[in-house]
Design a protein that fits this description.
Blueprint (H helix, E strand, L loop, with lengths): L2 H25 L4 H6 L11 H7 L2 H34 L5 H11 L4 H14 L6 H25 L3 H9 L4 H12 L1 H16 L3 H6 L8 H11 L4 H21 L1 H13 L1
């Protein structure tokens, strides 16, 4: 494929990705009458009432707080446990090491829908239903496979001479992990952190499985409840949806370069 063909393909992919986002964001600045008359048109005039109504709702901020708490906790658990597992699988030699790594790799093929009932029963036995920590713990468990798959080759590519030099200076294995390995693996850590955060922020099935009380709902559940309650207010639904996705979208755009670097390093490793 020629260079111009690649640019054209990239533009087509970007268009397919950005057009729905633009429709949602711009739709929040329109009235229902404008949407009914011309669904694909631009706001004329621009209306701020939909966004003001959502931003002025205490329910929206409660949902965002719930989502942020769960997403941050799941990200910390995923990165912490994934870094420890990736370090052990990359730097330690023990019987069954490749088998353990294969299990993590196989976890990429294990969808949440298949595990819904076992996860629900396990959380019930642990008394973690209606608990934000139960959701974060389950999300971290499902995020570990991709985390380990990215971190292990990245950590394995770091020269062993660094570990030998650190050992000569009196640095133990945990000290080497904390002081040398994690700083050097920062691009990969940022990558898995962003993936874990976005996966948790956008999660719908797990929170729906665990939560019954609306006070515990996350933003995806809140958007679904808002759509059911105000099904005729299309403009309001679009504004609610746009504000729900903007934090995660902004976080992704901010960390995009580090994600590319982390994935490239993992592939090279």
């Amino acid at each position: 494929m020629t260079l111009s063909g690649r640019y054209l393909a990239a533009l087509l992919v970007a268009g397919v990705t950005l057009v729905p986002i633009a429709f949602v964001v711009l739709g929040g600045f329109r009235t229902n009458a404008q949407l009914n008359a011309d669904p694909t048109g631009l706001p004329s005039p621009w209306v701020l009432d939909n966004y003001r109504s959502v931003l002025g709702s205490p329910v929206f901020w409660r949902l965002m707080g719930n989502s942020a708490l769960i997403a941050v906790t799941a990200t910390v658990l995923t990165c912490g446990l994934g870094a420890a597992a990736g370090y052990a699988l990359a730097r330690y030699r023990f019987r069954g090491r490749e088998g353990v790594y294969t299990l993590f790799t196989a976890g990429l093929l294990f969808p949440l829908g298949v595990a819904s009932l076992p996860v629900y029963l396990l959380l019930r036995q642990l008394h973690l239903l209606e608990s934000w920590f139960g959701v974060a713990l389950a999300e971290a468990a499902f995020g570990l496979p991709v985390t380990v798959v990215i971190l292990r080759p990245f950590m394995a590519a770091i020269p062993g001479e660094l570990e030998d030099a650190a050992a000569v200076d009196g640095c133990g294995r945990l000290g080497f992990l904390w002081r040398i390995m994690l700083p050097l693996a920062r691009p990969a850590l940022v990558t898995v952190a962003v993936l874990a955060f976005l996966g948790s922020w956008n999660a719908y099935q797990l929170p729906m499985l665990v939560f019954n009380q609306q006070a515990h709902f996350t933003l995806p559940l809140g958007v679904a409840a808002f759509q059911s309650q105000y099904s005729q207010d299309t403009a309001g639904i679009l504004a609610y949806t746009a504000l729900s996705m903007l934090p995660a979208l902004g976080f992704f755009v901010f960390a995009e370069r580090r994600i590319v670097g982390g994935m490239a390093g993992a592939v090279k490793g």
